[in-house]
Design brief:
about 525 residues, globular, single chain, Rossmann fold
Length: about 525
């Protein structure tokens, strides 16, 4: 996306770095997250950022090998915003002082009071009309720090303080360097979005990151990469791969062939819906590959979730290779990889220690496959993919579908997978989604699904004993899938739904509702 002004987020390992990107994308500013250890002088010259943000992180600037930015970043002549650990790094690098704890740690909600001087970064903060006897014009923020700044760097002044952070907001306005100890990207800093809005305005961004512009640029990028060669697209039927397929078809026409792999882990009636839409409605060349026996055979007896994901990922590659060999001139494999997939699958340090879970569509292709990757959505979050789908004319009924994972029902069947359990799960999930639609709740929920639990429970039906499976229901609200909260169904809805499932789906005699947020849980059970 070189035609846009670009903002660089240097990631020091914060759990909420992705939320910074979301806030900026909401302002139509194109940004990318890159780990600190992959940002050097050559990278900075090539990326040419119009502004830079330092994320938070779990480290201490005193630790051996503590994450640091390249010194040259401060000589770029562009605005820089440091957040939490990012503030401490700025002070440490520019001549200030950072100290350990000593009773000044802050975790959770805090209140920042304004300094004496005005700062353009804080336009819209510290409402002067508030009652000074009640809150003194303070603003609520979210803190999460142990170390603290004890002396600011030369050229900086203090523009906000909190009880345990005397330098909660500091800045050197002449250089447009800004640093805050709190996290403006999280929901619990109510005016955080305004702070980011001010920062990008100071940096001179025009807000030119739109889906219309992205569509045109993505098509040009695909054509430049692919030329007149042929592409096969791994089509799962979900929103991501479907939008990628339609975008690719617009770019290269019949040089695209979609391969829809039916791995036996799809929802009820899903294969028929996908084939009808792409083969009949869009007239896109489509191979319907029924490989359910292959996948289910390989998964037989497997219960570990990571092993399941790796088996499915490997088999996807094998199946695509099989069909690619049958398509003369196929040189590329297209996938609907999204930005959160990449972020979750690769730790900020490049190692495996903080990988949350493996995504089958992240990590490149085996050399033996002989195909190059095309990933036109790799820079987008889920809500941006939906917006692009609307730009491409996909029907709202399809764009609005809840996300469905590549491994399918395999990760909604904790423990060992069997065909009988999958059949039970499909029927139960269909009843659950039908209930949600009947009550007009489908569009209010980000994702909803049923999962069959690896346990049987005793029940009583018709005066007889049953010993059947327990079912978990999950429904969450989210914007981008990086954080999520459970949907607050009424007890009446849950009772009615549980009754329908038990009455209509043989093999289920007990239903639970999952009230876990993300974090600490993930959206899927595995």
């Amino acid at each position: 996306m070189t035609q846009h002004d670009r903002l660089l987020i240097i990631d020091f390992g914060s759990q909420v770095t992705q939320l910074i990107a979301r806030r900026l994308r909401e302002l139509n500013v194109y940004c990318e997250i890159h780990p600190f250890n992959r940002v050097d002088d050559d990278f900075l010259r090539a990326f040419a950022p119009k502004a830079v943000i330092f994320s938070g992180g779990p480290s201490s600037v005193f630790s051996e090998g503590a994450p640091m930015p390249p010194a040259s970043v401060f000589d770029l002549g562009v605005p820089i915003l440091g957040i939490c650990y990012g503030q401490q790094v700025m002070m440490h690098c520019l001549g200030g002082r950072v100290e350990r704890g000593h009773g000044t740690a802050e975790f959770g909600r805090a209140f920042v009071s304004p300094g004496r001087e005005r700062l353009d970064l804080l336009d819209g903060w510290f409402d002067p009309d508030r009652d000074p006897d009640r809150d003194g014009g303070r603003e609520q923020v979210w803190m999460s720090h142990g170390d603290h700044v004890s002396a600011i760097a030369p050229g900086f002044k203090v523009y906000g303080t909190s009880p345990n952070a005397p330098f909660a907001i500091t800045a050197d306005p002449s250089r447009h360097f800004y640093a805050v100890q709190f996290h403006p990207e999280v929901h619990h800093t109510p005016k955080g979005a305004k702070l980011y809005e001010n920062f990008v305005r100071i940096a001179g961004f025009t807000g030119d990151w739109t889906m219309d512009a992205y569509r045109d640029e993505a098509i040009r990028k695909i054509r430049d990469q692919v030329g007149d060669r042929k592409v096969i697209c791994g089509l799962s039927g979900g929103v991501d791969s479907s939008v990628a397929a339609v975008l690719l078809h617009e770019a290269i026409g019949d040089n695209l062939t979609c391969v829809f792999v039916d791995h036996g882990l799809l929802r009820l009636g899903e294969a028929e819906q996908v084939v009808t839409m792409f083969r009949d409605h869009y007239n896109i060349p489509l191979i319907h590959a029924d490989e359910s026996d292959l996948f289910l055979g390989a998964l037989e007896g497997v219960s570990d979730p990571e092993t399941k994901r790796k088996i499915i990922g490997k088999l996807f590659i094998d199946v695509f290779q099989k069909y690619a060999d049958e398509i003369e001139g196929a040189e590329f494999l297209a996938q609907g990889t999204l930005y959160p997939d990449v972020i979750e699958s690769v730790s900020f340090s490049g190692g495996p220690s903080v990988t949350i879970k493996s995504h089958h569509n992240v990590g490149g292709l085996p050399e033996k496959m002989g195909l190059k990757l095309v990933e036109p959505l790799r820079e987008l979050f889920k809500d941006e993919v939906r917006a692009l789908g609307r730009e491409l004319g996909l029907p709202d009924s399809f764009i609005g579908r809840h996300p469905f994972p590549g491994p399918g029902l395999a990760i909604r069947c904790p423990g060992e997978i069997t065909r009988d359990k999958l059949d039970i799960l499909r029927k139960a999930d269909a009843v659950y989604i039908d209930q949600i639609r009947r009550h007009g709740l489908y569009d209010a929920i980000w994702q909803a699904f049923a999962a069959i639990l690896p346990m049987r429970t005793v029940g009583v039906m018709g005066d007889g004993r049953t010993y059947d499976y327990a079912l978990a229901l999950r429904a969450v609200t989210s914007v981008d899938g990086m954080t999520a909260d459970y949907y607050p169904f009424s007890h009446d809805f849950l009772g009615e739904t549980a009754t329908r499932i038990i009455n209509e789906v043989p093999g289920i005699n007990r239903v639970f509702y999952d009230c876990t947020s993300k974090p600490p849980g993930t959206i899927e059970l595995e």
